Amino acid sequence: MGMSRRRREAVAAYAFLAPDLIGLLVFVVVPMVLALGVSLFKVDGFGGYTFVGLDNFHRMLNDAALGQSLRVTAVYVVTFVPIAFVVSLALAMLVRDHFRGVGWVRTAFFVPNVISLVVVGLLWQFLLVEKQGIAANLLSTIGLGDVSLLGNPTLAFVSYVVISVWFLMGYQMLIFLAGLNDIPKEFDDAARIDGAGAWQRFRHVTWPLLRPTSFFVVVTSTVSAVTGLQAFDLVFVLTKGGPANATSTIVFYIYKQAFTFGNYGYAAAITTVMVGFLVVITGVMFRFTRGGRFDG
Questions:
Q1: Which CATH number fits domain 53-289: 1.10.3720.10, 1.10.443.10, 3.60.21.10, 3.40.50.12780?
Q2: What is the pLDDT of residues 210-235, one digit of tens each?
Q3: What residues form DSSP beta bridges with 41?
Q4: How far apart are CA 181 and CA 188, in angstroms?
Q5: Rounded-to-10 torsion of CA 110, 115, 120, 126
């Protein structure tokens, strides 16, 4: 006797999921397990492993440079994530309605996201570099003097945040746009007939129905801000973590420990703790928001 319809559907579903599951296992789970194993050893850079137990984790408690990188990363996350969220949602609301040239406007906002971050970093470095950069010359022309946008710790960090928002806002705009298009237009029309204004319609109709999309954007942008490409590529190209470690994020610090100082075991220990922290934070967000499906 052949398989039942339910069983055939289950087999088909697992078959479609198999490539992603295999990729997740090979490229995420296995490296995480290996990193956890390496974190228990001191690696001399020539293939020599010395078991040190939890020494690498204990070392983290007294590492002032690591603390600085954690503070930079924390400030970056709490500034970048909400700013990118608001800007992306505003852009999605702007281009949601069809008007002449809306396709070109959407494309223009999304184009930065398809450019290599190394190229993006080089272009912005050309614009911002002291004395020779276009932005620096423009500021000097309007009477602000020689402003070092990448040489001043505060301005370098602000520039890093602005460039990150500019790079990612097109992608998040499309996510919000998809969420907005999934909201039945009848709800907005009914609220309009009842006399609700634009802000009231957004607050009581659009925003509640957009919460699952918003949750996805917050989670992915947070993970991306901590571990994503812009957390490393832009820093590496623009500032090399400087000036005065003002843009040295946790990912860049891990890179320096592993590939500059050869502390592979210590870098693996930091990575293990960072991944564990992200898993816990994501789990807490899912638990208290039910995946963005808030009550009320």
A1: 1.10.3720.10
A2: 888 888 898 888 888 887 666 788 88
A3: 51
A4: 12
A5: -100
